[in-house]
Design brief:
Rossmann fold, alpha/beta, 11 strands, 28% helix
Length: 294
């Protein structure tokens, strides 16, 4: 396969097992931040190269807090990915967003507190001495989100455009008190992995959007049973074919897309005097910042 791997998909839901995927192979990478969750699965989908990664590892071995998201996004960047579609399970915080529906969110609310949130200024990873303030006013790429919306609409599955996706630390589910407060804040859906994926993708110049599959009503809904792993899995399995079809549609729509609209996200984000950036940091982050230091 010689064409660049410009389109990536991260998530579970069995998407990497799409029957239409041809020329399948695995690529194992290491990164300055350690190993990604699993090997990257590459292949050709309707003539377009695509690369997949199981976010939690095959067999769902890694909890949300323990995900090496920096390594996962770095690996996609290394492979040339410009457009990254996240397939994510989530709970609904609004009555009209029912289990089985899909949401293409346009905003994030971060309630995590234990995760590395940036590639930059991490002495332990050899990337200290560099301060970067990336803009995340619109955390999901509007262009890619529009593509994902159209892709899901083609499947006929109920889909909602926009909404605030609140990300909690996990791995536990919410209490009823938390869930009710999140509703009062105006959040639409709740999950555990969109942060820090969104901001890391932005730092990497990758367009990122989410197809969020609603599996439950979290725990606020008094007429529904509280969320359980069994309930989540049942809905995910039921929606697997929808996810595969939506990804296939999105890949087709992206086949002739131009460069990522987020490619220059770091252009005005580096605050540190170039002469003060440590040589080791420059070397380790060359892939991200090299063009801004020339």
């Amino acid at each position: 396969m010689t064409d660049p791997l410009r389109i990536g998909v991260i998530g579970g839901s069995g998407v990497y097992q799409m029957e239409a995927l041809q020329e399948v192979r695995e690529i194992t990478l290491d990164t300055p931040f350690g190993p990604p969750s699993d090997a990257y699965i590459t292949g050709v989908l309707d003539g377009t190269p695509v690369v997949f990664l199981a976010r939690h590892g095959r067999g769902h071995r890694i909890s949300p807090t323990q995900l090496n998201t920096r390594a996962n996004i770095w690996g996609f960047k290394t492979l040339g990915v410009e457009y990254l579609i996240s397939i994510s399970a989530c709970g609904s915080l609004q009555e009209h967003i029912a289990p089985g529906h899909i949401v293409i969110p346009d905003q994030l609310f971060d309630r995590t507190h234990l995760r590395p949130l940036s590639f930059f200024d991490d002495p332990a990873a050899g990337t200290g001495g560099l301060v970067v303030h990336v803009s995340l006013a619109d955390p999901f790429c509007p262009f890619l989100s529009a593509v994902c919306l159209a892709a899901v609409q083609e499947t006929g599955n109920p889909v909602h455009q926009g909404g605030v996706f609140i990300t909690i630390e996990g791995p536990r589910f919410s209490t009823k008190g938390e869930s009710r407060i999140f509703r009062q804040w105006g959040c639409s859906i709740i999950g555990m992995t969109a942060v820090p994926e969104a901001q890391l993708a932005r730092e990497a110049g990758i367009s990122y959007a989410t197809m969020a599959h609603v599996t439950d009503y979290d725990v606020w809904h008094e007429t529904e049973d509280p969320v359980t792993v069994d309930a989540v899995i049942r809905v995910l399995l039921r929606n697997a074919e929808v996810a595969k079809s939506a990804v296939r549609n999105a890949v087709r729509l992206l086949a002739t897309a131009g460069p990522s609209p987020q490619a220059d996200a770091l252009k005005d984000a580096i605050l540190t005097d170039r002469s003060q950036i440590p040589a080791q940091t420059k070397k380790r982050l060359e892939m991200l910042i090299g063009k801004y230091l020339a």
